[in-house]
Amino acid sequence: EENAQITLEQKLELNKILLEWGDAATVAGSTSRIALSQPVAKMQEIKRNLSNKKYQGCAESTRLLYVDAMNTNVDSYLEFMKGKEYEQDSFSLTLDYKKQLELAEREKASCSILSA
Questions:
Q1: Mean pLDDT (the chain, rounded)
Q2: Terminal-residue alpha carbon distance, the chain
Q3: Whether 71 contacts 47, CB under 8 Å
Q4: Contacts of 76 (CB under 8 A, 6+ apart)
Q5: Which residues contact 108 (CB under 8 A, 6 or more apart)?
Q6: Which three-class secondary structure state does DSSP give residue 56?
Q7: Number of other CB atoms surrounding residue 30 within 10 Å
Q8: The pLDDT value given to residue 2
Q9: Number of alpha carbons in the 13 Å side-chain half-sphere of residue 97
């Protein structure tokens, strides 16, 4: 339901988590394979934090789409960390992540209570 209300605190909380995710994903993306465990652990922590939240209406559908995308991105890094023979699986998951992230961003943009 589009008119379901979330509090300003929830809106700010969701946006803060998404910014934190973006920062962690950027760090992971520029980290060598051998040093990825810490950045990926940070990504998992952010994903768990968002997974434990509950919102209303389109804010909740936005949250769910982001959690799906985050799961896929973490999985892609975990595959990549296994070594060269898993790079194709990692690449495939990365493509899936980009599509899921696009869906999540579209949902967030169309959610008036989040963009207001």
A1: 94
A2: 16
A3: yes
A4: 90, 91, 93, 94, 96, 97
A5: 18, 62, 66, 114, 115
A6: coil
A7: 8
A8: 46
A9: 16
Q: Cα(108)–Cα(15) distance, rounded to whole angstroms? A: 10
Nearest 5°: the CA angle 34, 38, 41 is: 125
Rounded Cα gap, residues 59 and 43, in angstroms: 21
**CA pair distance 76, 43, nearest whole angstrom:** 12
Rounded to two decimals, what is the model's pTM? 0.92
Contacts of 10 (CB under 8 A, 6+ apart): 53, 55, 59
Sign of CA dihedral 66, 54, 20, 90: negative
Please give the sequence-ordered ranges of beta strands (E in DSSP) within 5-77, or none if there are none.
Answer: none
Residue 7 — pLDDT band, cuts 50, 70, 90? Answer: confident
Q: How far apart are CA 62 and CA 103, in angstroms?
A: 9
Q: Alpha carbon 77 to chain centroid distance?
A: 13
